[in-house]
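Local shape tokens

___
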Amino acid sequence: MKFEVALASDFPDKNLDLVTFFDCLHDMGDPVGAAKHVRQALKPDGSWMIVEPAAGDQLENNLNPVSRMYYAASTMICVPTSLDQPVGAAFGAQAGLAKLSAAIKEGGFARVRKATETPLNMILEARPYLASRKRCSRVLPQPLAHPGPAGVSRAEPLFGCKRISHNLVALSGPRELGWWAVAFLSDRRFRGGANDAGFSCARD
């Protein structure tokens, strides 16, 4: 492990799996610029974890003891710090999910979600691409060890082929079948199997 000092908008690393920001995005003068640089530094399937003070999007959602403390600290520390930097966005410690998500998406990220939260913090996950969902057809081997319930066609489509990363896909079948699988992408198709069934699906 090594420690280096650099601005969020110009640190030199590339091709990263994970970038983490701990209680700092709202302090930056240019959160959008920081987001753009993080986007450039990540792998296509990388993740950005952003820890920020817990806050609602409206003032009336923040009238509580924790937010009062954050507003006070933000007035004395966070906002002046941001205003003293280029751009001076001055988000403050009670920016809220909507404002933070808008800045992150403006920086080039397609998906932002609140992964979890505590009474003091919210943890956001940002990813460069949306998870793709495709309509797939199950290709079953012959013979089937477990053909499934009567009346279910072998050509019945699978739904919810969810792209997890650049080479990993999770598939889920009709509820009554209970089939699921994880497949690795190979060239322009992916294959796998579960419950003695096989499948294939084309991707973009």
Q: What stands out?
A: Residues 132-204 have pLDDT under 50 and may be disordered. Helices lie at 31-41, 65-83, 97-106. The two ends are 38 Å apart (CA to CA). The domain at 16-127 is CATH 3.40.50.150 (Rossmann fold).
